[in-house]
């Protein structure tokens, strides 16, 4: 019997597929589009991708699809449109796309971006993903061509966790999570990690949880400039409010201690968590107990705690 806590057993997303069978064939690369922005941006990107050989294209739409979705499906028969029946966070959409993907490398980008300099065609095999990398993040440019500070460096400043944005300078620079979820992911490593936490509604903490879990479990996310993407419009801002998603991030990552060969969520953490949580005594106890069971189930996957993770992180120059 599985020991996975109930809070991590979220029902699967309901969706339908629009598109012909050509899109189900495997290839050297899967491109996973997350719908955002108007039709012009998306159609321009589909035109760029449509001529690439050996590429599976998945576009996650909805739950309010574009009025011209069926027209797009006829115009681009090689694209599979995954139409959601209910709202879903960006991480949930990526989880779904990873299940549908037929290749090991999966490139995740938004539909209001475009390939800069033909980098996708030049790197179709995904060879520069590397054997030991969970994700390669691209060089990202703003709508005016400026390089964005897309390297996210974690640090403890006066006892508080901060994530500092830096402009990429050296190939192989590590980042704690993929900026705006964009990157070339190893599907196998992504699924082994468990993907993004579907219970986190806040995309910021969803990315933070993914990145810290990856680091604590020994995975690496790094920057390689050969992949280049550019925004057609200004990237959206983020909400880093310490909400219910933050509480789950805190218990799964910040509160875990490493005892030399495994991770542990100590019972001693419960009183402080209950006092600071707005869930109430009973719900706080339930949350803590279920996350503690999750940590115990995955205890041997931890290779350190947050203190050791940040201690190994080198601040860019």
| Strand order, largest beta sheet | 1-4-3-2-5-10-7-11-6
- Give the DSSP E fraction (strand runs of 2 or more residues): 15-25%
Total of DSSP H or I helical runs spanning 4+ residues: 10
Largest sheet: 9 strands, mixed
| CATH hierarchy, class of the largest domain | Alpha Beta
**What is the string of helix and strand elements?**
EEHEHEHEEHEEEEHHEHEEHHH
Q: Report the end-to-end length measured between terminal Cα atoms.
A: 50 Å
What is the domain tally?
2
CATH level-two architecture of the largest domain: Alpha-Beta Complex
Radius of gyration: 20 Å
Overall outline: globular
**CATH H level, superfamily name of the largest domain:** Spore Coat Polysaccharide Biosynthesis Protein SpsA, Chain A
Compute the number of strand runs: 13
At the third CATH level, what is the topology name of the largest domain? Spore Coat Polysaccharide Biosynthesis Protein SpsA, Chain A
Output the structural class.
alpha/beta
- pLDDT under 50 segments (min length 5)? 1-7
Helix share bin: 25-40%
| Integer average pLDDT | 88
List its salient traits.
317 residues, Spore Coat Polysaccharide Biosynthesis Protein SpsA, Chain A, two-stranded antiparallel ribbon, 13 strands
Please describe the topology of this protein.
Elements: E1 15-18, E2 29-34, H1 39-50, E3 55-61, H2 69-75, E4 79-84, H3 90-100, E5 105-110, E6 113-115, H4 119-122, E7 135-141, E8 151-157, E9 160-166, E10 183-186, H5 187-193, H6 203-216, E11 221-231, H7 244-254, E12 257-258, E13 263-264, H8 270-276, H9 281-297, H10 306-311
Parallel strand pairs: 2-3, 2-5, 3-4, 7-11
Antiparallel strand pairs: 1-4, 5-10, 6-11, 7-10, 8-9, 12-13
Helix pairs in contact: 6-7, 8-9
């Amino acid at each position: 019997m599985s020991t996975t806590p109930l809070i991590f057993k979220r029902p699967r997303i309901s969706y339908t597929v629009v598109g012909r069978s050509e899109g189900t064939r495997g290839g050297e690369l899967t491109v996973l589009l997350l719908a955002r922005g108007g039709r012009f941006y998306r159609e321009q990107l589909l035109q760029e991708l449509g001529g690439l050989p050996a590429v599976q294209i998945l576009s996650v739409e909805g739950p309010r699809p574009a009025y011209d979705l069926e027209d797009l499906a006829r115009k681009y028969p090689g694209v599979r449109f995954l139409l959601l029946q209910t709202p879903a966070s960006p991480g949930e959409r990526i989880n779904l796309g990873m299940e549908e993907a037929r290749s090991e490398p999966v490139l995740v980008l938004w539909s209001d971006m475009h390939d800069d300099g033909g980098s996708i065609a030049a790197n179709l095999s995904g060879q520069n993903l590397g054997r030991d990398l969970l994700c390669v993040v691209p060089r990202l440019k703003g709508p005016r061509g400026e390089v964005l500070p897309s390297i996210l460096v974690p640090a403890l400043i006066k006892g508080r966790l901060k994530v500092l944005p830096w402009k990429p300078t050296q190939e192989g620079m590590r980042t704690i999570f993929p900026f705006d979820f964009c990157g070339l992911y190893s599907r196998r490593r992504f699924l082994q990690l468990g993907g993004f936490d579907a219970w986190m509604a806040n995309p910021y903490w969803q990315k933070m949880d993914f990145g810290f879990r990856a680091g604590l479990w020994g995975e690496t996310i790094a920057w390689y400039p050969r992949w280049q993407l550019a925004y057609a419009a200004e990237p959206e801002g983020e909400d880093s409010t310490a909400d219910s998603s933050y509480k789950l991030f805190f218990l799964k990552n910040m509160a875990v201690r490493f005892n030399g060969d495994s991770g542990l969520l100590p019972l001693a953490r419960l009183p402080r968590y209950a006092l600071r949580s707005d869930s109430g005594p009973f719900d706080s106890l339930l949350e803590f107990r279920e996350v503690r069971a999750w940590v115990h189930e995955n205890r041997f996957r931890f290779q350190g705690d947050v203190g050791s993770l940040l201690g190994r992180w080198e601040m860019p120059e």
